[in-house]
Specification:
mainly alpha, two-stranded antiparallel ribbon, 2 strands, globular
């Protein structure tokens, strides 16, 4: 049973409190709730409330009950579903069939939010501490420290041994899977054991979840280990060695997870030989005669994660090999089914090269052809959506009409105005925001004022926020002062004052936060308090206030958290917002919530992610106690392991962000994300 739950797209954590089953790996789906594959779409049903997992071997899981008054009702505000039409993107993809309207901006935000929030960086650096150390230290007070990241001594003396003891003491799949992912996030061998020797024996377990988790964990850990690297290649190829490791034929799911692991491993190593061996293995998989789309997509995503040096001359042969591998597959003639797989190539290519590489122009032209009707590009929606997302990453702001880049911005505005697929149109708005520039800003402001309130204005608001945030990042990196964009801020604030739709209010809250338009804070606080019963809306407003670093809002956010103990989604949102503001007291409240024996599984999942994102080392001891408390259920203990590993995570951003950033999540395949047991469904 995978420790997972559907996300309710609340701005600071991807969580849901819906009636969907929780599934494993310590995972959690990143999208609004009520999005489940219906029967007949590659999933089997696991009870009256939804599927229990894919037919590829994921075991069944129980249904998580919904506590009264928690979580939103789902994306019901997105207007009528009109597949392929201008009114919406519809509820289907060419891969996983989904039942909800996926056109909402919240999906994109949940897949991409981490680099915008920067929570662990905020909490590990200076900031106020408003809580008491009594909770953590008993009656003995100690001087509070601003730097609350776990120390290396704590990790080696406390965390890793505890996880090792827990995993050796049981075969219970939830605890085993959660401990492996937790240890992988830490990514350090212990003096008494190596991570690869913990993971490798579990490749042959008779439980599919444990097998694929072990493969993925080797990649997430990225501990320098020739053995682990060789294991991943052997599993990816289903070689004799791979079959011996797995106790027989390597399943397609395990092969897919090994390929994601291979990409993650190569991403963290600068060695050209490691990257070349990884590319050779993934290219071979991409070009073989097998038709399993999960394996192909995993190979494409793995190549995109190679992180090859874009500048060094000695790296260019390898870069060209990687680009050519993706290009060759992308340009093959294929039907709709294979086009879904091909649609992962554009965003993988952009991760490799960015805007200034010598081949960027080549790929800009190639992807533009998918949108330009005059060039008779392929008309599949998956390809068009990916092309739009790719152009947002490959083009730079330039308001000169003579600029080459200006042509692509014009193409994106035309795509928005004329394309038949709603999602392609909304992605066009987002890409215009990513590109930036005065003309694009002017266009987005017009859509913000005149567009459909339920569908178009939220995307325009988010795009404007993304544009403002990018400018802020560039200027601060240059140690230059940057004032908020007043024109954008005033426009967003005016919309917020008039908005009634929770969908629009949430987007405006996030956008104002990204814009850092502090003048909006009083209105945002007022709406947050006044509409607290709308947990989703209030949660995004909490996040927006935190993103603009509005310290005056800290008290009202604390009050919101205290008043929302039975609205878990909002409770956790507020806790994360306090973390962004540097308030370390939120972890105390989360721990108390974690100890609640009545907490349902969705609540546990939400708290686990929140504690991990905050990363407060004072969480270690309470989590250890929970992990070994046999009076608690297996899932409570598994979530304690999830939280423990997340607190000690070596990275500032979650490992899965290397895959999810700018991904075309509409081109879903089961092992990537099926709302339950895909690699992006893992916490």
């Amino acid at each position: 049973m995978h420790i997972r739950t559907l996300t309710c797209a609340l701005g600071v954590i991807a969580m849901t409190l819906s009636s969907t089953p929780l599934l494993a790996h310590g995972g959690i789906y990143r999208g609004p709730e009520d999005v489940v594959p219906p029967p007949g779409s590659g999933a089997r049903t696991g009870g009256p409330r939804g599927p229990a997992g894919p037919t590829t071997g994921a075991p069944r899981s129980p249904t998580a009950p919904v506590p009264a008054g928690t979580g939103p009702a789902g994306p019901t505000t997105g207007g009528p579903r009109n597949p392929g039409g201008r009114g919406g993107a519809g509820g289907r993809t060419g891969g996983i069939q989904l039942t909800a309207d996926l056109s909402t901006w919240r999906y994109w935000w949940e897949f991409n939010k981490h680099s915008y929030i920067g929570l662990r960086e905020a909490i590990h650096q200076t900031g106020p501490i408003t809580g008491s150390d009594v909770f953590w230290l008993g009656t003995r007070r100690q001087q509070s420290q601003n730097m609350l990241a776990p120390t290396n001594t704590q990790i080696h003396q406390d965390v890793l041994p505890s996880l090792k003891r827990a995993i050796d003491s049981t075969e219970q799949r939830d605890i085993v899977s959660s401990c492996m992912i937790a240890m992988a996030k830490i990514g350090q061998d212990h003096e008494k054991f190596k991570l690869v020797d913990v993971f490798a024996p579990r490749l042959a377990r008779n439980n599919q979840e444990i097998r694929e988790t072990a493969a993925l964990a080797m990649g997430i850990s990225a501990v320098p280990s020739e053995k682990a690297f060789d294991h991943l290649i052997a599993l990816a190829h289903d070689s004799d060695t791979g079959r011996k490791l797995s106790g027989g034929k390597v399943s397609n799911r395990t092969r897919s997870f090994a390929l994601y692991g291979l990409g993650l491993y190569a991403n963290e190593h600068s060695s050209p030989s490691i990257k070349r061996r990884a590319l050779t293995a993934m290219r071979a998989v991409l070009n073989d005669k097998g038709r399993d789309r999960n394996i192909k997509v995993a190979a494409i995503q793995g190549i995109g994660m190679l992180a090859i040096d874009r500048v060094a001359p000695e790296s260019q042969p390898l870069m060209n090999e990687a680009l050519d591998a993706l290009l060759d597959y992308y340009t093959q003639k294929a039907g709709a089914g294979r086009q879904l797989v091909q649609s992962h190539c554009p965003t993988a290519i952009t991760k490799l090269i960015g805007t200034d590489h010598g081949r960027s122009t080549e790929f800009r032209q190639l992807f533009a052809a998918e949108l330009d009707g005059k060039k008779k590009g392929r008309r599949g929606s998956d390809l068009a959506r990916s092309a739009v997302l790719a152009l947002g990453q490959l083009c730079a702001a330039n308001d000169s009409k003579a600029s080459v880049h200006a042509h692509y911005s014009k193409l994106l505005t035309d795509t928005y105005n004329t394309h038949k697929d709603g999602q392609t149109r909304y992605f066009s708005l987002l890409s215009l925001g990513q590109i930036g520039g005065k003309e694009n800003r002017r266009f987005l402001l017009r859509i913000l004022e005149r567009g459909n309130k339920q569908l178009e204005r939220p995307w325009a608001a988010l795009a404007l926020g993304v544009q403002a945030f990018a400018k802020y990042q560039v200027m601060t990196a240059q140690d230059a002062h940057v004032d908020p964009d007043v024109l954008v801020g005033e426009a967003l604030l005016a919309q917020l004052k008039a908005a009634k739709s929770p969908e629009l209010v949430g987007a405006l809250g996030v956008a104002l936060g990204l814009t850092r338009y502090a003048e909006a804070a009083p209105t945002m606080r007022k709406r947050m308090v006044g509409d607290m019963q709308k947990a989703e809306q209030a949660g995004y407003l909490c996040l927006g206030l935190a993103l603009m670093r509005d310290q005056t809002s800290r008290e009202v956010i604390q009050q919101t958290m205290a008043a929302s103990s039975r609205r878990t989604s909002l409770f956790v949102q507020a806790a994360i917002a306090l973390g962004v503001l540097g308030d370390k007291s939120a972890a105390e409240a989360l721990h108390k919530k974690l100890e609640d024996e009545d907490a349902n599984l969705a609540t546990l999942s939400a708290i686990a992610e929140a504690l991990g994102q905050i990363g407060d080392r004072r969480s270690i001891e309470p989590l250890k106690q929970a992990l070994f408390d046999e009076t608690r259920g297996d899932l409570h203990r598994a979530f304690a392991a999830v939280s423990l590993g997340a607190v000690a995570d070596r990275a500032m951003l979650p490992w899965h962000s290397k895959i999810s950033k700018n991904i075309n999540y509409r081109a879903a395949v089961e092992s990537l994300t099926n709302q339950q047991s895909g690699v992006l469904d893992i916490l």
